[in-house]
Amino acid sequence: MDKITSSKIQELAYECKVEEAMTKDVVTVAPSDTMVDVWMKLRDKRISGLPVVSEGNIIGIISVEDFIKCIIFGKKEEQVKDNLTAHVEFIYSDEQLIHVIKKFEKYRFGRFPVKDRDTKKLIGIITKGDVIRCLLKRFEKEYLEEEAQKNKMCNIFKDIRSDKTTVILKYNIKGKEFKKAGEKSSFLKSALLRMGIATEIIRRIVIASMETEMNIIIFTDGGEITVFVEEDKIKVNAVDNGPGIPDIEKAMEPGYSTAPDWVREMGFGAGMGLPNIKNYTDEMKINSRVGEGTNLEFIVNI
Amino acid sequence: MNIHKVKQILNAVVICGEELLDMDVKMGCGCDLMSHVLAHIEHKSTLLLTGLTTPQVIYTSDAVDIKAVCFVRGKRPDDDVVKLANERGIVLLSTQLPLFESCGKLYKEGLMGISEHNG
Question: Is B3-118 a domain of CATH 3.40.1390.20?
Answer without folding.
Answer: yes
